[in-house]
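[User] I wish I could look at a protein chain and see how it folds. I have put the entry right below:
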Amino acid sequence: MVVKKNEFIGKRKTIVKKNSKKAYMWFMKSAAGGNSEARKMLQLNFQPPIQPQISPFQTDEIKIDKKWYSILDEKLPLIEPKHYFMLSELIPQPNLSSNEIHMNVAAILPYILQKIKMRDVDILKTEKFANLVFDQEDEESSDDESKNENNKLIKRNRLSRFDCIATLFASAECSIAKDIFRTVSQLPIAFPLLIPELDNSEKFKVMLPLFIGSTIKCCTSNGSIIEHQLFEDNFKLIVAVRTGKNSQGKSTILNRLMASEYMFTSNSEPRAKYGIPHMIDGSVEFVWLTEETCGDDLWNNIFKNYYEKGRNEIILLANLHGDALHYRDQLEFLKKLPSYFLVFLQPGDEDQKDELKPLIGSKNVKYIDVNPKDNAIKEVCENFSVVLNSNLRRFSINNLKMGETLHLTENIECDESQKLINIIKDKTCRRDIKLEIMQLQNQHLKEGFDFLKFLQSKPKLQLFNSIIALPIRKRIGALAHLERELSRLSAVESSKLQNDISKMNHTNNTSFMNLFKKNKIPEEVTKLWEEFDSTNLEIEHFFRGLGYMYNMYKSFVSNSKIFDSDDDLIKENILRSPEYYADLLINGYTIELLDGDSTTISETWFLAVCNNINKRFPNLKIFVISILGLQSSGKSTLLNALFACKFAVSARRCTRGLLMQFLFLEKDLSNKLGVDAFILIDSEGLCAPEKIGDPESEKKDRMLVNFATQISNLTIINILGNSEEELTKILRITIGIMISLNKSINILLVQHVTDNNKEGLIDLKQKFHENFQKILRKTVKATDSKRGAHNKDYLSKINDENLKIFAPLKNDAGSYSPPSKQYHEDVVGLYESIINNCKNSKSKKKFSDWFPLIKSYWDAVLDEDFSFLKIKETYDFIELGKQSAKLKELIDMAFLKHKELIEDKIRTIVQESLSEGSSVDSIRSKCEELIKKLEGVPEIENQEYCDECKKVAKEKSNLNDYLEERNDVKCEKETNQTISEFIADCCESRSNELKIMLEDILKRNRNRFFKQYEFIDRLLEMVLSTQKGIGDIWHSLREIVSKENKAFVNEEINNKVEKEYENMWTHDLFENYKNREIPELSKISAICVTGWLGWFNFFMNKCLEPNDIAWLKKEINRVIERILSKTDNFNSEVVHELKTETEKILNNLSTKLNVKFNSEFEMNVHAYAILTMLNALEKGDKHDTLLGVLDKIEDEYKEKIQIRVKYDHVLEYKGHVTGDYLLKAIDKKAIDAESKYRRNHVLGIPWMKNSETIRIQYFIELSEQIQNGDKNKLNEVAEHFLSPKKGIEEWFKNKVNECTEKGQKYKETSDKQFDYVRQEIRNCKSYTNIRKFVNKYMTQVDGIDYQLNIKEDSVDENFNIFHDAIMKELDNKRTSHDQLKEKSLPNPSEDNLVEKRLGCTEPCFWCGALCWGERGHDNDYGETKRHHTSHQPGGLMGTNYKTSKELVAMACHKRSNNAIMHYDGKELKWEEAKTIDFENWKFEPHYRTNFNEIMCWFFEMLNHNLAEKLHCKPANESELEKHGCLKKDYRKIISVLRQCLENDKNEEVYVAQNFSK
């Protein structure tokens, strides 16, 4: 490729070759000037490939100063905890060519960071780092003028180790930077103390806050270990500076004294010939002078004796790069530390020496002349000795003042965390805090307990609560600060304790100790550990206390003392604590899944935190990894190396119970594996030495193994050592449990060898497999042979793919040596195995399906019940029902929307078509075509413009995904069939509703209906001339209407018949019809005489046979009955339909008899049909008489009479009537809007989400009636259980009808519609305009029958009178029409969508538990048609023992299949009864054990009341205790139930929309 220079930097035409140094300089200059094309060329030709890492989180970026563009580009992502703990694929080692110099640091940084996270810190050694670049020949520029400039630019852009380290620390959030330092500080290298800012190259960042408090360990020759807290314990700082330029660099001289010749960045390190690092000038590197960092001479001659005196004081060496006179702020900062300056001078720099003295002072300063005789090294050593014996001032970071160019980097410490730390430094206080947390856990709370007052008495817990509420970055820092200090206190206490235990063990080994005292030693050791545990305070204890506070809050959330309290901040912090903690989980923190001290799950807290995770990642797919191993086998260490976790590590049990951590996956890895996150489960160490022989401890170990394996996709068994004894100890408990499980296991075995000799790797693996199979055979022999056949087979085939042999963590026994290279390689190998295991796994799951089952699994473990599969099956069954119900509701909403849209269109079509004179048939045809469009709902063609159909498609896709994951073909087929049938039913029912609505509109718009009104109006005018009072007028009007009714009906019917039969009937036949003379068909000649066959029939019989006449009449009567069943009026459509059907009957009979009827007979048959129908109408009262119509509208018409009496002018009267009907239409629209608003409000209530949440809310309210202490409520609540269906339905009806604010939507709609109508009427300039508007507006509402129809010529002359009358009516009566009349509103509980949410309310025959299925689920196909519930103690429904008559406390799912059941005169085994009479019910245990708990509590509370009502005996105490119905913790139960509602509340809830305009 060739590039023309003038395209980027100038007019001079020069052609340069790709990757040439001269081209690079041109592009750099042009890009710096803002040329975007030049920047693209830089990236294309000079930038190495950068490993893409797409985070699932939003990434904050650091804006980079232009000075660093060439190595970092314009922006760099901030390394936050959530990104640091995110997993990606293994990044291959970059091999950068020497020409790939643009953004080289940015390109290499992800690789470096991953290496550090996986404990390969060696990459930061200079000699290792240099291998990342290989030299490539480059054609130099032939332009001598620019050659020097090119070389200068290229040299400045070499890949530098210092630039990488400085950028790594500068771009990491403070807590992550501390983690990085904690990892790499085991490496004997120098670290940056001052570095330039990334976003401002003129400023420098002081990294001191990142290093403060870090532990530096130093091992002396006598075996003692010095632990030094960096920059907190006493230290002395030797500061090396220079002036001018040295031919032999200061850093080079210092490096010759160190363990590595590349300790400090210098011009002697590899590739230094290409130039100095970008960021080096003005930066300060430092290193602690210990055996690991010092050269042999420096250590043996200077520092060895110093440290062996037991000093905790450490010596640091700092190196300021660049001419010190250029960096005065740096000198001022270093001078404030307990420092001793070594100034390196070149001969002839005396004037600079004088200039330097005022900056650093004359005390604690030594000037070293650098000369060719090379005695500078000796002088440096001598001055090191001087420093050791000097007294330097103390240092406090709080007293540091920075110069203009310096500022302290962000610190993890804050006032909130420091306040708490100051308190907990007191040992007594630590014991008090643990006691307070235990009080929170064990508090038996009574009604009236003042939770907030209790919390106010615990200031330490309040302080921690305020820390949790800090902004996330500050929160993470504060917690890191607190954790660091707690760990430090724990380490001190643990150290003392271990020394005491070591002394005891030493005494135990002496020969003169008698046997009695020797046996006492283990007991004394246990007491020491117990003493340690009582005072040892860890951050998990605070998190545990936080969970307890939240649990208490949820249990008292309905207490008025909490709601009325002014402590809003405390309440908000507690209420939002799960949200705050979820933030921490996302950012790499752990959550205590199982409390190791109490072996309980804090269910309310756990559910709340998980729900907040689920809210942010609703479709989160997970892969769960647990790790099991003996105590101190290195489990946590391994996880920390694998995934950069922060699990605590030490020589004794650190993890208690089970801890859980999220590890989110980078996008590419996520796509590859099909999961979004790993969940790590770190378990408590098994077989703790202090617990050996304790049966309860062994039982707990078995439970931990069982539980961790059940909830995991992959289990790692961690084994320390290769002795058969160690192997037996861990495998005996883990394999023994796994064999018995009813789920397929998936394990990886990790064995850590105790020496560095891995040459015999094959032998080690072979020996392991031999021992493993030997232990397996023994374990299988001791296990129930009927269980776990699949897992036995799996374990017998364990091979090298399942086994990972690990080298020791460190190459030597040094206390502060870095992890070995081989250990890192083993970690990488295990990481790849885990990735592949996940990729091949078929058991990945959604987080939303995983966490709700955790408590149920643990309860099963506690009950030693291995039926985990049943728990999952029940959950899947219920989840399928929920998803089906949700989809059905969305389908219902979609049909509702389209129905309402079609209704609007039908109204418009009818109005427009009638005004155009279209026939009713044509109108009906158009509308029926519209109705047919429902057949496309809710399929693809509707989704482009319909939000409701899109929701259906989305939910249907979710259901399909769920069914696919279940991999149950039968279930999938049945579910799809159920949904298809439901769609068909919805379509049919909505279509029928539309057809009825269409006929109603057509009826209202047909002339007959409104002619009745007009006829009555004419009669009113006649009455008004003789009567004056409203009552008299009404009575007179009724009388005259009654008399005139027959004439009106006859006239109307005759007109319709004449119109239909005018071309068929003779005059005589019409006269006979009017006289209502029904023809006698048997006497009328029927046969048409044509041809010889006609004459033959004529002579044989001119009339039809009696049986033919009977058949004819029967068919006509059948048709009449069918037609009249569809209508209540005699209209033209009825006449036309009857005519058509009669013709069909005649044709059928003609064919049947093989004759042709004459016209006279056919006319008489039609007359017979019409008159027969008229008789049927009159006898059946199927049509509205005038009087019937008048009586129906009595109140309405009396209002019209009042208006008519008030206004003399008929048009004025008509105008007021029109205005009144417009107001009624407005009111109807507002009522409809209010009704829909209330329905949608109810559907959006959190506890209304589904039948399950409704039942939880119901029973919470029932329980509160009892808990509030009103004994009279006990009998009322008992009635609910004895009549569960009636109880919940009445409660539901009352509850939803009281749940809305009334009138708001009504007022809003009424005002809006009134303004619209008034403006439209005002704008009308003619009667025609008004008529069109009014009649169209009236068609938009149902139930208001009015049509404006006045002779136009009578209005035109007096239009203003008519127009003004409408306006006056609107304005004068507006107030009376804008008040909502409660009686006119339907209740939300009557709405079909609301009613369906309640679900099925069928109770279990035996226990009364309400079914949890959806409404109408018994019409489904397949398993979901069966009733399911959380079965409860049978006594709640009155079930009792036949002999003792005592109420039964047992729930249905716990009953033995052999139990004898007596019911309905039958006596059957329970197994038979379920199959014969109750096959439509499921009796498996429910996965929501908390619901079982509340029912047991109810039975405990109502036992005696129910027995009294049922004339039985109450269950005895033994029965109650046996079935878990005794001494239930109400507050704990209720807090979990409330949290279940909270969890469901945050899921997406769909409500119907107001679709019609």
